[in-house]
Each structure stands twice: as structure tokens, then as C-alpha cells.
Amino acid sequence: MIIPVSELSADTLENIAKEFVLREGTDYGEMEIDLVTKVEQVLTQLRNGTAVLVYSELHETVDIQPADRYTEED
User: In a 3-state reduction of DSSP, which class is residue 2?
Assistant: First the structure.
């Protein structure tokens, strides 16, 4: 189930984005990107619709997924 980001408080949305970034692990790209920047990038993607918040009733968890890859059957 997709959770509309407009229904969450700014603090809740930021905390979900921060937890997602921290869960993703170490950055091995050419440039290290700080946590604040990564969180802002995720928040931007959520707000512009390129990423969505997905709630799993089975696992009772929230995840962030690319909008173009998410289907209700997943």
C-alpha cells in the first residue's frame, strides 16, 4: 500500500528518509555524500513522485521504492 507523503508530518517523513539512508549502507561512489544531503535527495524524490512510501501489511514495515518499479502486487 502506498502512503501519501502529504499525510505525514515533516518530522515523520524526515525520520523515515533518514532511516532509509542509514539502512542503505556505505557509499562507495566517486564522491562521499553527507547524510543531510542524502536525506534531502530522498525527500525530494518522495515529494516529486519519483519515489514512494510503501507500507507492507505482512511485515508491518515502511520502505521507500522507486515509483516506476512499484506495483500493488509486490
Answer: strand
Name the residue type at position 23. R
- pLDDT, tens digit (0-9, with 9 covering 90-100), for 14-52: 999 999 999 876 666 677 788 899 999 999 999 999 999
Where is 44: in which H helix or E strand?
A: helix 35-48
* Beta carbons of 45 and 13 less than 8 angstroms apart: no
In this prediction, residue 74 carries a pLDDT of: 44
Label residue 32 exposed, middle or buried (CB < 10 Å: 0-12, 13-18, 19+). exposed
How many Cβ atoms are within 10 Å of 62's Cβ, its own excluded?
16
Distance CA 68, CA 57 (A): 21
Which residue shows C-alpha cell 555524500? 33
pTM for the structure as a whole: 0.82
